[in-house]
Amino acid sequence: MWNRISALLGIILLFAYFGISCSKSKSDSIKNTVDSSKLVAPIDSTNISEVLGVCHAGGQYHFTGKPYLIEGADEILKLGSKCIKVWFENVAKKYPYNSSWPSDVANYSCVEVAQTPYFQQLFSMPFKVYSLEINDDKINWRDGLSESEKNLVFSRMYDLTKYLLTTYKNSGKTFILQNWESDNHLAPYNMDPALVPKAIQGMIDWTNARQDAVTQARKEVGLQGVVVANAFEVNSVLSNYNPGPYTIDVVAPYTHCDIYSYSSYSSRALNDLSSIKSRLQYIKTKIPPSKMYGSYNLMIGEFGYEERGPWPYINPITDISGQTQLYSVKEQLRYLLDWGVSYIFYWQIYCNEEVDSTGKISLSSESRGVDLGINNLKGYWLIRPDNSLTPTYDYFKGLFNGNAKVKAQRPKTQL
Question: CATH top-level class for 2-33+46-408?
């Protein structure tokens, strides 16, 4: 009985908090946005190779002697995409094969990571768009963001933005700095309900500090043939998988980011593919427009379909499994391109998600540095562990070969 009373009190506190405390955050956010009625920039017609990208992070197998970061990037270029998404922290764990990362790379600043030979090589490759995952894992915003923590967050993003704007001046590249799946980071269902409001406010402050840093660096350096943008990612939208509150409702409306990212897996089921439309529309009602991307400032940070799924992940690899994956991916992509999101990143080139022999229990999403086979993985891949190509790979290859124009909101280079 006492546990139920405590939970009820926590919920009451949560609603009370957002009725009072977040009113200030909301007003602060509005001051940093512009009237959406003045944002009439059209959605541009853009080659699909500069809209549809592929992720590369933590894969559980490899095929060459190249540094792993570069091996995956080469495969994405070979496929035909000019957009890539990579992790910009925990790099030694995400990209272990054939790589000699500095022993203390986990303590590197963002600029120092960018200056490592592997990332210098990656950024010299002919990609047009890079999405970089940065989560500030050492910052504990859950108990509120202190002034010293805010300064650390600001300086980290400011320094990286300034470095990218100066180093890659006139390169024609776009760098998107983003977090990963804020709902999984917040995870209010794992917290004492009474502590959730402070964690939510901490995430709001953390997100705005990151954006303020990017904005300040852009203001000082300018955008001369290169774009650096900041994104905030959500992953639970009109969902019932985990209990809320969800960040699209309690965090995103009180921020002022250049662009918002949706890690989109809730609509991948074969009987629910069209629900992505209502989720996109719902996100649009919650995110403030930005000066950089206008009122369609939404990207898809991840989407895909597991070939050995759905749960449990025990389906054999057959023509049917490949065609099932392809059907889901094609339909998801059709809805996303029709909407006109700015960027779309497919998860991923090599699968990273390990499962046990029953297919029911997830073991690791970090590379263990040893090659795993088809029966050890969920099947989020374009290239399987036996080096065979999925039908989805062939489909993407055809799209990139044709490189047709699609509609996608582009950033304004003059702010």
Answer: alpha beta
